[in-house]
Every structure is written in structure tokens, then in C-alpha cells.
Write a structure and sequence with these properties.
Length: 157
């Protein structure tokens, strides 16, 4: 009986895994206005990932993925001094840095305002290694899906 139960459980688990991820619509829904604000003074924001197929995602006041905002959207990043650094290193590494940006399937029903101001600061995005990618978005919109790392159906999640 234990053997039969174990085999049944294994078949159910295998069937669930074979279907893969199911995309949802949308992943994030905001019914109203959305305000995202980041203010940095004399600080460093560092994001690092190393190894084969490593991924480094740095998002400040940004929407990524499948997002719907049923209102106005305001995204602001300001800074004085310091630096923002995002790095991914290794074969097929991917570095994505987004400041005051919309990346992916982002729908805004109202007005959209994006502002980034970095004074006496540095903003760095680096991906190193064979077949690596680095994508940087500053106060912008990017629906370039070939710019994203290779993922199974339903990405981003």
C-alpha cells in the first residue's frame, strides 16, 4: 500500500512539474495612483551576482514584469554623492539596472512621470563573461523582451 501511495504521489508531482509556470494577468495591480520615490545622499547601493548564469537585478522606483496601474504613476530617483552599482559576472550572466523606469508589460491608465537626477554621483551597470548581457534603463520604458535573460514561459515572475 505504501508503494502504491508513493507511486501515485510521484505521478501527481511529475504531472504538476511538467506543466511549467502559468502566466498570470497581471502580476501586480494597483487600483489608484502609484508613487515611487528614492532619495539618496552620500551612499552606495551595490548589487552583485557571480557565477554561471548569474543574474543581478537592481530596481529603484521602477515597475518590472506584468504591472497594471489604474491611475497616475510617478517614479522619482534623486541622489547627491555616492554611487549605484549593479554587476553580474560569469558565463551567460545578466545585469539589469532600472531607475525610475518601466520594464516589461507595464500598463498605466493615467499619466506617467519619470524623473532621475544624480548629482556628483556614478551609475554603473556591468555584465562580464561569455554571452553576458547588461541592460540599463534610466527614466525610461522598455518592453524589449529579447533584452531579458532567457527564461521559461511566464517570465518575469
Amino acid at each position: 500500500m505504501k508503494t502504491l501511495a508513493f507511486i501515485t504521489l510521484s505521478v501527481i508531482a511529475s504531472a504538476a512539474m511538467a506543466t511549467g509556470p502559468v502566466p498570470s494577468t497581471p502580476d501586480i495591480t494597483i487600483t489608484g495612483n502609484s508613487t515611487q520615490s528614492v532619495s539618496l545622499t552620500s551612499v552606495s547601493v551595490n548589487n552583485n551576482s557571480t557565477g554561471s548564469k548569474s543574474e543581478a537585478f537592481q530596481n529603484l522606483a521602477s515597475n518590472t514584469g506584468n504591472v497594471t496601474i489604474s491611475g497616475n504613476s510617478t517614479q522619482t530617483v534623486t541622489g547627491f554623492g555616492g554611487n549605484l552599482t549593479n554587476t553580474a559576472s560569469g558565463s551567460e550572466a545578466y545585469a539589469s539596472q532600472n531607475l525610475s523606469s518601466n520594464v516589461g508589460e507595464v500598463t498605466i491608465i493615467g499619466n506617467s512621470s519619470q524623473f532621475t537626477s544624480m548629482i556628483n554621483s556614478s551609475v554603473n551597470n556591468l555584465s562580464s563573461g561569455s554571452n553576458s548581457k547588461a541592460v540599463q534603463n534610466i527614466a525610461s520604458n522598455n518592453a524589449c523582451f529579447t533584452c531579458q535573460p532567457t527564461k521559461p514561459a511566464g517570465w518575469p515572475y
